[in-house]
Amino acid sequence: MEDKFKYLFGPVPSRRLGRSLGVDLNPVKVCTENCVFCQIGRTTELTLERREWVPTADVLAEFDRWVAAGGQADHVTLSGSGEPTMHVGFGAVLRHVKQAGPFRTALLSNGSLMWQPEVRRDAAAADVIKVTLSAWDEDSFQRIHRPAPGLSFARLLEGEQALRREFAGRLWVEVMLLPGYNDEPQQVQAIADLVKTLAADAVHLNTTSRPAMAGVRLPPVPEAWLRTVAAAFSPVAEVPAFLERMKSPAEMSDESLFNLLARHPIALTALAASAGMEVVALEQRLAPLVAAGRLVVEDHHGVRMLRARSA
Ligand code: SF4
């Protein structure tokens, strides 16, 4: 049924949103940012301009056709090829969906335009809003998100904080961790401190799961590292269920284990959870390397951290 539509896609199964019907209000690729991790592709129209990027009436007509054909979804979600709040009609779309049936609505936003009161007012029509906060200062914001001129980190943060004050629905914050950009412990802590000011209902830690399309090759941050830093966030961050489980350390060569631990110490429990193995079994696998002094287990505030000892 989705083949016949231009602006709707799915419904796709989503762990958090159930059956989620996507609504795409942006032509490829119009966005306020050009993130290094973007999987849609390089932003060709990088702007803060808000306008009717696609005809609102056509989107609503398509949605009505989907409803009339018996379409069912748990959430109707504004997301897609760019930043949905760039479309001046996104609030009208949200309100229309709510009037059309028992649909819950979600808005997946990068948060970049929330400093504008009218954007926050329209966003408040959603049941769930997810915004992104993956930087901690201007420099990291520029490196990771490569925003349109006129968009500063202070503005982004101020907008997201104002949204939280005004929005009574569920606010989720996504934190994208990228190796070499924002994954060092003190950087993650700085982000976590700012995320706390958003009093989020949930925090989702994420990393790249496919090669980014925006011209930057980025390997994912190891799942075990995400699990290790999840507790720095308030509320404790949720780590996505990775499609591909990491190879069990029981089957990994010593060299692969060292590579995994080369960038960060990782909590023993996190590594065991990521690999789907018991902590005791993991300890047995690592025992010879620990005995040989190549790996070290250290207590860090009551958490046992595993670290590769540099040669
Ligand atoms: S990741 Fe989202 S915000 Fe960033 S460039 Fe891609 S569509 Fe825009």
Question: What report would you give on this structure?
Answer:
The chain is α/β, with parallel strands linked by helices and 311 residues long. The protein folds into two domains: 2-244, Aldolase class I (TIM Barrel); 245-311, Winged helix-like DNA-binding domain superfamily/Winged helix DNA-binding domain (Arc Repressor Mutant, subunit A, Orthogonal Bundle). The protein contains ten helices and twelve strands. The strands form three sheets. A seven-stranded mixed β-sheet has the order 1-2-5-6-7-8-9. Iron/sulfur cluster is lined by residues 31, 33-35, 38, 40, 43, 82-83, 110.
What count of domains describes the coordinates?
A: 2
CATH domain fold name of the largest domain: TIM Barrel
Gyration radius (Cα, Å) is 21 Å
**Major pleated sheet:** 7 strands, mixed
Ligands bound to this protein structure: iron/sulfur cluster
Q: Which CATH first-tier class of the largest domain would you pick?
A: Alpha Beta
Strand content: 15-25%
- Backbone shape: elongated
First-to-last CA distance: 59 Å
> Architecture of the largest domain, according to CATH?
Alpha-Beta Barrel
CATH superfamily of the largest domain: Aldolase class I
Regarding quaternary structure, what we see is: single chain
Helix content: 25-40%
User: What structural category arises from helix and sheet content?
Assistant: alpha/beta
Helix and strand element order: EEEEHEHEHEHHEHEHHEHHEE
Low-confidence stretches: none
Alpha plus pi helix count = 10
Number of strands: 12
Please state the average pLDDT score.
89
